[in-house]
Amino acid sequence: MSLRNSILIIAIVLLVDQFVKIYIKTNFVYGEAGQIDVANWFKILLIENEGMAWGTKIPGIHGKLILTFFRILAVFGIGYWLYDASTKHSSNYLMVAIALIFAGAVGNIIDSVFYGVIFDDSYGHLATLFSDNPSGTWFHGRVVDMLYFPIYEGTFPQWLPLYGGQPFKFFNAIFNIADMAISTGVGILIVFNKKAFAKKTTIEMYKP
Predict the structure, then answer these.
(1) How far is CA 203 from CA 178, 206, 207, in A?
(2) H or E, element range at 46
(3) Is 157 exposed, middle or buried (0-12, 13-18, 19+ CB in 10 A)?
């Protein structure tokens, strides 16, 4: 796969990701008050994540800023990895995987960098795009999540240590299109590891 095709994948993922986020942000109220039940196992629920997966945060007043800059540095590294893979004529599996991971990372960085200054908050009302009363500052925006799949709800058995009798949900994470792209890219690297990192022969490199 050429670098141009990889960039096309990145552009498509970013456009879809940002369109969905902006639509959800401006049409849904934060939390369960604005939840839409598409099915018993699929809900659209606006939340905003200040940290990493499952809301994990870096502690301290500068934790959010550190996380945002770390993400930006990581994206530069992934971008170089994509460029290097293209120059080495790496497999399509690897190129697609890196492109998806790159697109997902950039999608969430856009939220972190810009959303704090272009949106007001979503608590109890619909957010306004390009608001005169923004919810935060540069590099302190929250990542918008909305896809929720509580496929099964139950209770841990009483005999289970620590968690016995407590309720649980599978799957209780709430995520977005960018997260899906990252997970898919990582999944490709894991499931198709040998094909992803297979070296092409000289003949394969120069096939029309």
Answers:
(1) 36, 6, 6
(2) strand 42-49
(3) exposed
Dihedrals phi, psi of 37, to nearest 5 degrees = -90, 100
The amino acid that residue 138 corresponds to is W
* Side-chain-side CA neighbours of residue 110 (13 Å): 17
The span from the CA of 101 to the CA of 78, in Å, is: 8
Q: What is the bridge-based pairing of β-strands 167-170 and 36-39?
A: unpaired
| Count of other CB atoms within 10 angstroms of residue 204 | 11
Q: Cα separation of 179 and 182, whole Å?
A: 5
Buried b (16+ CB within 10 A) or exposed e, 110-128: bbbbebbbbbbbbeeeebb
The torsion angles phi and psi of 5, rounded to 5 degrees, stand at -65, -35
Give whole-number Cα distances, 133 to 37, 119, 125, 137, 138, in Å.
31, 8, 14, 11, 14
Per-residue pLDDT of the chain (208 residues; tens, 9 = 90+): 899 999 999 999 999 999 999 999 999 999 988 899 999 899 999 999 876 665 566 666 677 888 889 999 999 999 999 999 999 999 999 999 999 999 999 999 999 999 999 999 989 999 999 999 999 899 989 999 999 999 998 898 889 888 888 988 888 889 999 999 999 999 999 999 999 998 765 435 545 5
Cα distance between residue 139 and residue 114, in whole Å: 7
The answer to whether residue 132 is catalytic is: no
Which of 84, 121, 132, 145 is catalytic? The answer is 145
